[in-house]
Amino acid sequence: MKLTWLDANSWLIEANDLRILLDPWLVGDLVFGNLPWLIRGSRAQPIDIPQNIDLIVLSQGLADHAHPETLKTLDKSIPIVASADGADVATGLGYQSVTAVGHGDTFSYKSLHLQTFAGAVVGPGKRENGYVLSFSPSGSTASSARATRLYYEPHGYPDRARLENFGPVDVVITPIADITLMGLAPVVRGSNIALQVAEMLQPQVMLPTAEAGRVTYDGVLAAAIKTTSGAAELRSQLESMGNGTQIIQPIAGEVIELNLRYLQKTAP
Question: Domain 2-257 sits in which CATH superfamily?
């Protein structure tokens, strides 16, 4: 498995000859609600758009997950699997094959088996999606003892009720730093939540998401956004607990090749 962090919440996953874009923001600025004066994310240098993409996965419908300008740029024939709000964005932009998945739903594509979990709270009584992506080396979409499993949830809201008994995964991508407004209101929950996820899922590898690599932010809210904790603190906590999970701090744009041990426990 190869992972490339494309900054913010955007990832390229390469496994079993599949190339999957996860929550891509690849072109233009990041703006919420057409209010660039409030907060705007930008890159000093454009990035190369990954080619030969097999599937796009969207966890939310917000712009930092279903980025309209990026989705307008990508090939509309690429299939998309997404939360309900993410699917609405993709459908509105003319994508030809869009599958909306809710909590507890599954989706299969070639050697990928995707399971959907409750994710970020985005409104009263409303939660977006987290996912477990299982890659079967046999090419079968059925769960298998040798499937490589990756858990992704970008805001630090794990589905505890279902994940506690889910069993181990190989890779976790989740926030590790806390990102708040004025040090008070949580925007992204890392640190303690990441530790809980590590205990629940016992991954071989954890990587942080939602942080800013080469991205910069401006606008009224930018100065109020505070980032605390991070990979070094979580690594120290896990080591003190005797947890052997490896923490990898990605660098935006650099490919990480993971050499994973095969799990022996079957997926539920």
Answer: Ribonuclease Z/Hydroxyacylglutathione hydrolase-like (3.60.15.10)
